[in-house]
Amino acid sequence: LWFYPYLIGLLNEARQMLRVAIDAAWLAGDERTAGRLMRRRDILLWEQDKRTKAIEILNQAEGIARRYQDLREIALSQERLSDYLSKIGNPEEAQPLAEEALAIGDTIRDLQVKILAAYRLSMAESACRNLDAALEWLNRGEKWARELGWKRALAWYAYRRGANLIQNGRPAEAEPWLLKAVEMMTWDEPRLVAYVKTRLARAYLALGRWEEARRTAREALDLIDRIGLHVLREDVEKVLRELPGDGK
After folding, report:
1. What is the pLDDT of residues 36-57, one digit of tens each?
2. Distance between CA 139 and CA 133 in Å, rounded?
3. 228: left (phi over 0), alpha (psi -120 to 50) or beta
4. Domains along the chain?
5. What is this structure's pTM?
6. Alpha helices in the chain (DSSP H)
7. CA torsion 61→66→71→72, rounded to 10°?
8. pLDDT tens figures, 159-194
């Protein structure tokens, strides 16, 4: 029940629903279910910019998964931690976690796990300025996503391709991929739109398209405030500070 509110940007509501469900699982003595729900809750904490708490809860969830030898949950915890480490500037630590998740996905023959792991490997390689390797991971992951028919993942993969290109100094090539990501959405997903606008603002700034950068950054901030996606605020405000003139 939590996922639909999360998808449409009701992050506070989704977090509250998960907290109630986690408490109920603990009261029922169902540690395994509590761990799975904790892994989901950490995503919301991270996106609301409660990063330390998110990592703490994720580590607890992974510990529970390891006690039960739940390979899928271990892999999903690993790929998520890989995501966080890449974002905070530790891609060398992120890469082996994503590799472990991918290996588990192979072992249990779970395409969804492999798609998520390939996405994280692309992030880590891009952060290390290995763009060719990053794009190759996206090619592999997209192939698996098509096999699975996972259209939402394909939209996020288009976003990631654009984000990787910006990170590696190719903003002009990034723009069409970011716009394509929004076109590919199969749901009204304001989170994805906020991520896209944040990256587009950075691309427009790099290209000297300052009015577009300013407008897009303001749109991103409005959306971030509306849905509570505070983890992106710093990136957007940095674009506004770097704009010539008064920024905002």
Report:
1. 999 989 988 999 999 999 999 9
2. 10
3. left
4. 1-68 (no CATH), 70-149 (1.25.40.10), 152-241 (1.25.40.10)
5. 0.93
6. 3-7, 11-27, 31-47, 51-67, 71-87, 91-108, 111-127, 131-148, 151-167, 171-183, 190-206, 210-227, 233-242
7. -10
8. 999 999 999 999 999 999 999 999 998 777 899 999
